[in-house]
Amino acid sequence: MQIKSTAFLKSAVHPEHYPEGGMPEIAFAGRSNVGKSSMINCLLNRRALVRTSSTPGRTQLLNFFTINDAFNLVDLPGYGFAKVPLAVKRSWGPMIRTYLEKRRNLRGVVLILDIRRIPGEEDLQFLDWLEEYQIPTIAVITKADKVTRGQRREHVRKIAAACGLPEDAFTLFSATSREGRADVWERVAQALDS
Ligand code: GDP
């Protein structure tokens, strides 16, 4: 995908504040620190369009961007961030569920996992919601550069088993080496077209 333009649209919590226009939309989700911002910035060839989650404030909102004036990209707040106040943690689930349930133009969610980490309860819960609302899921394992080529298969096997998904459901990615970038775009473009 050739990126001609990217722009921040708005942040929102409630459906009445989501951007209008009905553009097809793709959302990115994952545990805090999984590498979500790095992946989005790499996909868009932008150094820092999306901020990293070391500052929790703005990262607790749904952040909407418009890409090529053709589709929206949504950066969903990362989960599992220990320093977030309890009240914010409690509101995270309803905010995400409402978004997944109500957003008619949502075409797919990129769920990001870390190659070195067995998926946790929150990752599995997110997968359950995607299934419940029948949202096409693009599962991506990032930080692939952190393990040797020889170890990769075993890491993918364990992650796939924990998720109850086949190994070929996952695309391997690295924001550092940029490997997997074309594959992720291909799956995103396919979801946007469907
Ligand atoms: P977020 O909280 O999910 O948005 O995660 P970030 O994108 O801020 O990344 C968290 C940390 O992981 C940062 O220190 C990144 O530099 C690092 N990181 C992200 N992606 C990769 C990757 O593909 N490979 C490596 N080696 N490090 C990465």
TrEMBL record:
Gene3D superfamilies: P-loop containing nucleotide triphosphate hydrolases (3.40.50.300). It comes from the Bacteria. CDD domains: YihA_EngB (cd01876). Its cofactor is Mg(2+). It holds the Pfam family MMR_HSR1. Residues 22-194 form the EngB-type G domain. InterPro entries: G_ENGB_dom, GTP-bd, GTP-bd_ribosome_bio_YsxC, P-loop_NTPase. PROSITE patterns: G_ENGB (PS51706). Keywords: Cell cycle, Cell division, GTP-binding, Magnesium, Metal-binding, Nucleotide-binding, Septation. Belongs to the TRAFAC class TrmE-Era-EngA-EngB-Septin-like GTPase superfamily. EngB GTPase family. PANTHER family: ENGB-TYPE G DOMAIN-CONTAINING PROTEIN, MSS1/TRME-RELATED GTP-BINDING PROTEIN. Necessary for normal cell division and for the maintenance of normal septation. This is Probable GTP-binding protein EngB. It comes from Geoalkalibacter halelectricus.
